[in-house]
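re: ur question from earlier - yeah i can do the single chain one, its not a big deal. heres the input i used so u can compare w yours
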Amino acid sequence: MDLMELAIRRGFIYPAFEIYGGISGFYDYGPLGATMKKNIEDIWREVYCIGEGYLEIFSPTIAPEEVFIASGHVKNFVDPMVECKKCKQAFRADHLIEANADISINLSGLSFEELEKIIREKNIRCPECGGELGKVESYNLMFKTHIGPGSKKVGYLRPETAQAMFILFPRLYGFYRKKLPFGVAQIGKAYRNEISPRQGVIRLREFTQAEVEMKADSGKGTP
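and the output i got, formated as tokens:
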């Protein structure tokens, strides 16, 4: 917290929408922060785009639902959420368990039912009001929206930049004269509707992601 307070005082970052009460998971970059962010992105491009020869693409941050059904994000991009029955605050179930100093359990791979059982057995309560916690449920982290008028076309804000690299493969394969391997780079915004953002700028609802992928022959004559 001391580091975060220093960053705010020095003009690196500010809590977003502060004059309206703010909302967790969003930050504005101040004068020094915006400059630092740009410098980091420039260094990243120098290493991967200039040094390694990955060619950069730039894609929309909103995509239709079909993209994320195909990638598995609609079904599987989920976290375990539990809601307080009293104050209605929502929390990540595994984070609540991990925050309990009396519990040392490996939570990796546990089902939602097993997480709920631990919460009941250890009598873990709401950290905000002490109320009883409800059932552990699946919560999809993608921001849902609608494309165009009439709310007919469902879309999502991308949770990562990888989708375009797969969708554009036929175009990129042609651009590289159908020769493998080749590298692709992209840097841009990604969005995850975190249940309870924490750790300052480590877990955000909007963030910049930089990614490179190498497309190579599988050994079976196909990419």
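The helical segments are 2-9, 31-51, 65-71, 73-76, 93-98, 112-121, 162-167, 169-175. not sure if urs matches, ping me
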